[in-house]
Design goal:
Beta Polymerase, domain 2; 419 residues; 2 domains; alpha+beta
Length: 419
């Protein structure tokens, strides 16, 4: 696409976006930039969501004002980013409106290598450098119109996720774009454009070269958004889960029963978040690993085996390219084992009160409730209630404490046994 691309422009009467649906603080930013002679567009996912009748989670602004000029206009502005400078305008409640200057793809022949990331551009150049067409739409606060340089409006109408430019080339530039394409398709219920779909299947191995920390941040987005079931289903369909999670993802992709159990757990977690539940990383990652961990314990846990060590070593050997922090992995393993102990207690009718004394018992309870499909009431213990209902005459077994025998000291002239 060339810079001379003529945009499709929808005037106010041709689209459903109303200023009433835009965050008031985002409107303040847009209007102040406009009053001082700068172009100010609402951009990205906010425009897409408003066109689809959804409530955006974030409101981002694109402008021709340089970062320093934005900072002069807003006393509550902070510039962030070491490469390309972004303006974060902070409001009450920890709200941030992100303002970015229009950018273009750098030209290695003419741009200084010391400033290759600060390549400011025009609105059309900014649109063409974005990854997905529906995320490259602009809403102009002056004319109340929607501006489309890349065919995003047509793709929304056709319920299709399409990459801007050549998919193989764009995925080679940044393999994480493959994940984003599937994420948007799964969240919106859209189809993946056939050219992008083919490139994802052919190039998914490129994800192995990405930063593990960055992939961990992407994984958290999917676990915390509330559409994990749909997203992971598509990741498995395209073979990305085995790339991201190594042997863990591979086993889920190859075993239909494990995959079904895994997707059911992701759906339960999604419903918990939708009902107002709080995202907890340990809960989410315990559920992520639960079906695989149970299968691993069944096949490799002989009597006397250190089950925590077994799971930790198997995760280490799995070949995950996502860097899950060691502390989080350890917490998830111990929660999984606590929930596994709860399940065994329900099967055998034997329960030790030491289980309830664990520091992670509360977290394990929340995972148990999601695994078991039991609604949790405030102040109640779903596991203990279920156990007592199933075994009304059984009391909890208290763990025995061994009494230490004190050695009698020799008295008087009595010889010591160490003499």
């Amino acid at each position: 696409m060339e810079e001379t691309t003529s945009p499709v422009i929808l005037d106010r009467s041709a689209h459903p976006i109303s200023r009433r649906d835009i965050d008031p603080d985002a409107l303040k930013v847009l209007y102040r930039l406009s009053r001082h002679g700068f172009k100010a567009y609402l951009v990205g996912g906010a425009v897409r969501d408003l066109l689809l009748g959804k409530k955006p989670k974030d409101f981002d602004v694109a402008t021709d004002a340089r970062p320093g000029q934005v900072k002069k206009l807003f006393s509550n502005c902070f510039l962030v980013g070491r490469r390309f400078r972004l303006a974060h305008i902070r409001f009450r409640g920890n709200k941030i409106i992100e303002v970015a200057t229009f950018r273009r793809d750098p030209d290695p022949e003419h741009d200084s290598p010391t400033d290759i990331h600060n390549t400011f551009g025009t609105p059309v150049q900014d649109a063409l450098r974005r990854d997905i067409t529906m995320n490259a739409l602009f809403y102009d606060i002056e004319t109340f119109s929607v501006i489309d340089f890349v065919g995003g409006l047509e793709d929304i109408a056709n319920r299709r996720v399409r990459v801007i430019g050549d998919p193989p080339g764009r995925f080679s530039e940044d393999p994480v774009r493959m994940w984003r394409v599937l994420r948007h398709a799964s969240r919106l219920g859209f189809a993946v454009d056939e050219h992008a779909a083919r490139a994802i299947r052919d190039q998914r191995g490129l994800l192995a070269g990405c930063s593990g920390a960055r992939l961990y941040a992407e994984l958290n987005k999917d676990l915390s958004y509330g559409k994990a079931r749909e997203t992971f289903s598509l990741l498995m369909e395209y073979g990305l889960l085995s790339i991201l999670l190594g042997a863990v993802g591979e086993r889920l992709e190859q075993d239909a029963s494990l995959a079904g159990a895994f997707l059911d757990l992701m759906g339960a977690h999604d419903r918990m978040l939708a009902s107002g539940g709080k995202f907890e990383a340990t809960v989410a990652y315990s559920l992520l690993l639960w079906p695989w961990a149970c299968a691993t314990l069944m096949s490799g846990s002989a009597p006397g085996t250190d089950r925590a060590r077994l799971l930790a070593e198997e995760i280490e050997r799995a070949g995950m390219i996502v860097t899950i922090p060691k502390g989080l992995r350890s917490s998830a393993v111990h929660v999984i084992l606590a929930v596994n102990a709860m399940m065994r207690s329900l099967e055998t009718g034997r329960l030790k009160t030491s289980l309830m004394g664990r520091s992670d018992y509360g977290t394990a309870l929340r995972v148990f409730a999601l695994v078991s499909g039991i609604p949790v009431s405030d102040g109640k213990d779903p596991f203990l209630e279920l156990f007592r209902a199933r075994y009304p005459g059984v009391r909890e077994r208290r763990a025995r404490k061994r009494r230490r025998r004190r050695r009698r000291r020799p008295q008087g002239n009595e010889p010591s046994d160490t003499a």
